């Protein structure tokens, strides 16, 4: 059974709890440009908290899997998040940034010791998007040439995968020029989707 934390540890956890609750609540009022920084602040606070929750062997719970840590995070979310939709999206965004920030903080030896993938969530999302894009381009080229088994449904499904990979958090981390390129592509894309819906109706 895990021993109760020392008074100084409990005090530290209480400070981090209040700070994290306030930071999450601030997401309701911060500007779009400040949201990524706020999520990274929240991630940093939760990683600081993980250092105060020991695993059975006494090492820090960097993975956030101990029961005590999960209770700690659950109490924060219940106190700071309102609405079912927000209770899904905000924790998901926080997990994304925790995955990025913790890999920036821990050294390579600790990352390996804890079995963490060296690539952070953003890098994995980008790699997944590149793989989806390559397959999408292949299917589209085959369909245009009338070759192979690239059906319209295959292409539509790959297109949906492309959109799923382009998460709001990933877009926020892109450069201004990359975001501008995405905006420029959306108009023609929506027109083509309108054509596709018309053809299918």
Summarize the structure.
The chain is an all-alpha fold and 201 residues long. The protein contains nine helices and no strands.
Walk me through the structure.
- With 201 residues, this protein is an all-alpha fold.
- The chain folds into 2 domains: 7-113, no CATH class; 121-200, no CATH class.
- Helices cover 75% and strands 0% of the residues.
- It contains 9 helices and no strands.
- It has helices spanning 7-26, 32-50, 67-80, 84-105, 108-113, 121-145, 152-165, 168-172, 176-200.
- The longest helix has 25 residues, at 121-145.
- It is globular, with a radius of gyration of 22 Å.
- 14% of the residues are buried.
- The model has no long low-confidence stretch (mean pLDDT 78).
- This is DUF222 domain-containing protein.
- Keywords: Plasmid.
């Amino acid at each position: 059974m895990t021993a109760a934390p020392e008074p100084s540890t409990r005090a530290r956890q209480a400070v981090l709890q209040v700070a994290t609750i306030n930071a999450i609540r601030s997401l309701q009022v911060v500007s779009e440009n400040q949201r990524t920084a706020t999520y990274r602040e929240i991630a940093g606070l939760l990683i600081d908290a993980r250092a105060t929750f020991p695993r059975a062997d006494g090492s820090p719970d960097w993975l956030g899997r101990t029961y005590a840590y999960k209770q700690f995070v659950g109490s924060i979310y219940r106190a700071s998040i309102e609405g079912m939709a927000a209770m899904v999206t905000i924790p998901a965004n926080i997990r994304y940034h925790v995955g990025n920030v913790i890999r920036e903080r821990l050294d390579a030896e600790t990352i390996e010791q804890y079995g963490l993938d060296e690539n952070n969530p953003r890098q994995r999302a980008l790699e997944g998007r590149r793989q989806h894009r390559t397959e999408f381009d292949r299917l589209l080229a085959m369909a245009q040439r009338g070759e192979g088994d690239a059906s319209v449904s295959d292409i539509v499904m790959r297109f949906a995968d492309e959109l799923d990979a382009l998460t709001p958090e990933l877009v926020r981390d892109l450069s201004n020029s990359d975001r501008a390129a995405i905006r420029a592509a959306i108009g023609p894309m929506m027109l083509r989707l309108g054509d596709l819906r018309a053809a299918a109706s």
